[in-house]
Write a structure and sequence with these properties.
The protein is of the alpha/beta class. It has 22 helices and 8 strands. It starts with 10 loop residues before the first helix and ends with a helix.
Length: about 550
């Protein structure tokens, strides 16, 4: 499992997982297209390309790509602003071109700078969004479209929270019975197979849930679920009608500045969401494999260029489908490729059979996936780690729930950076006093943010004191801090303060000034031992 190559050795795990991902991805592709005010088939095209093309070229083992809810606002606004959908497809093509360039300039390294607490917070928030987003479908409220990662909906009923509470006033009892039974079965099955071995663990629970949902709905006969309560896939009566669903871009729009602006915007947002997603998927991977980020950006770019050429929505690596892939036991990217093949084959040949699947059964699968991502134990773990870890984690969750994925992650990173700076700020300076003898020890990286406290501490040293300034343990000292220390050394004799300096030559201090310091070395070194002893006692 060390190499990221296509192999049939893991087909026993990958194919069942691909069926689950396919069942989850199908309604999401349609729902995101609906929320984006785009042709429904454009969402399916994006799902096919995300599976077949990006899955084949990807640098990730378990990530699944397709149309993303996080792009719906940008896509909907772009389609509305541009003259036609064909013109919008040209922007998608440009988006892919820009992503390939980002891959070649190694922009993928940006994903490595996201703190682990923010990634875990993103996954937990996605889990909560999944639960809140799918409960309406479990209850039988079909007024909302299927979205996987976005708080904002593409309907007139409101956002995630309002839709969640509103759905309790529109309960369909048949859907609730089917969906509730499927959800209980999922939990029971996972508990039943947790410690067992043999053939039974090879049966994927989500696939069993789908069969259970279809079977229960058939048992209800005429009183069962119909219409919007079931999966709905466009059906073609002939091959020519099927190929008519594909759309080609308006190549004359390549010189349109608005198309370029939209294309670059899509590329930046899609690339960032992809990097965040693959970072999260690597964290979920049981083998803890690491994705080649540059290769991933290039693969996403090629995928988006193809989407633009044949009528698909822009794609990214998407965490919900990727999480379903991991939780279903996938071991390689063959699962992603298989899911793309399944979408293509099924919408071309057997859309009628897929249209028998109740949405409430799919909702049960996604709610369980959300629970796995946002278990109570995860919150307890980060709370025990301390505020430096818990607050960025919690802020990421809250911000994603209030705004959207990208904004929430950026806020989480900002808060995480604040705590990093705060920790470094507090630990960069250690001051010890014994009578009129002072030890100033600079540790780690000392930035300009530490300048005020160092300056104030030095100026607070009383007359007739002995001061040792030790910078040997500092990896980096900002030039502003060096000037503060040099200024103190220069005017220290005015207060009859004797100074000894311990420092590395590469820190950039004025060596002539260091050599000219008026001090009594033997006397100070004697008291340096006392100061070190006092420092150890204080620690």
């Amino acid at each position: 499992m060390k190499r990221n190559e296509l192999s049939l050795k893991t087909i026993g795990s990958d194919f069942p997982a691909s069926v689950v991902v396919f069942l989850v991805a199908l309604p999401l592709c349609l729902g995101i297209a609906l929320a984006s005010d785009a042709p429904l088939f454009s969402g399916l095209i994006a799902g096919i390309v995300g599976g077949l093309i990006v899955g084949f070229l990807s640098g990730s083992h378990l990530s699944v790509s397709g149309p993303a809810a996080g792009l719906t606002a940008i896509v909907a606004a772009g389609i509305l602003k541009l003259p036609s959908f064909e013109t919008f497809l040209m922007a998608v093509f440009i988006c892919g071109l820009v992503q390939i360039i980002l891959g070649f300039i190694k922009a993928g390294i940006l994903g490595d700078y996201v703190p682990n607490g923010v990634i875990k917070g993103m996954l937990a928030a996605i889990g909560l969004i999944l639960i809140l987003n799918q409960v309406p479908h479990l209850l039988g409220d079909t007024s909302q479209s299927n979205l996987d990662e976005s708080v904002r909906q593409g309907t007139d009923s409101g956002g995630l929270f309002s839709n969640f509470f509103y759905s309790f006033s529109k309960i369909n009892h048949v859907a609730l019975i089917i969906g509730g039974t499927c959800l209980l079965f999922y939990f029971a099955w996972e508990a039943f197979t947790a410690k067992r071995k043999g053939f039974i663990i090879l049966l994927p629970a989500p696939l069993l849930v789908v069969f259970l949902g279809v079977g229960l709905n058939i048992l209800f006969n005429s009183g069962g679920l119909h219409g919007n309560h079931l999966v709905s896939i466009p059906q073609a009566s002939s091959a020519s009608e099927f190929f008519s669903f594909f759309t080609f871009p308006n190549f004359s729009a390549f010189a349109n500045s608005e198309v370029w602006i939209l294309g670059i915007t899509l590329a930046l947002v899609a690339s960032l969401e992809t990097l965040l997603s693959v970072e999260a998927v690597d964290d979920l991977d049981p083998y803890q494999r690491v994705t080649d980020k540059e290769r991933e950006l290039k693969a996403q770019g090629i995928g988006n260029m193809i989407c633009g050429l044949i009528g698909g929505l822009p794609i990214t690596s998407v965490i919900v489908r990727s999480s379903a892939n991991v939780n279903s036991g996938a071991k390689s990217k063959m699962s992603t490729v298989f899911h793309g093949i399944l979408i293509l084959v099924c919408i071309a040949f057997i859309p009628g059979l897929l249209n028998l699947i109740p949405k409430c059964a799919l909702a049960a699968i996604l709610i369980y996936t959300g629970y796995k991502l946002s278990k109570p134990a995860l919150y307890k773990e980060y709370f025990k780690r301390g505020w430096n870890q818990f607050i960025p984690f919690a802020v990421t969750i809250g911000a994603i729930l209030i705004t959207d994925l990208l904004v929430g992650v950026l806020l989480g990173i900002a808060v995480g950076m604040f705590f990093i700076v705060r920790t470094n700020f507090k630990s960069a300076l250690f001051v010890t006093q014994h009578d009129n003898k002072f030890l100033f020890r600079l540790k780690k990286d000392v930035s300009f943010l530490n300048k005020p406290i160092i300056k104030n501490k030095l100026e607070a040293v009383p007359e007739n004191s002995f001061v040792i300034i030790d910078t040997c343990n500092a990896g980096f000292i900002d030039r502003d801090v060096i000037e503060v220390i040099e200024d103190f050394i220069i005017h220290a004799p005015l207060k009859k303060i004797q100074v000894e300096m311990k420092q590395h030559k590469d820190h950039g201090f004025n060596q002539k000034l260091m050599n000219d310091i008026n001090m009594q070395p033997d006397y100070i070194r004697t008291h340096d031992k006392k100061l070190k002893k006092l420092e150890i006692e204080n620690v």
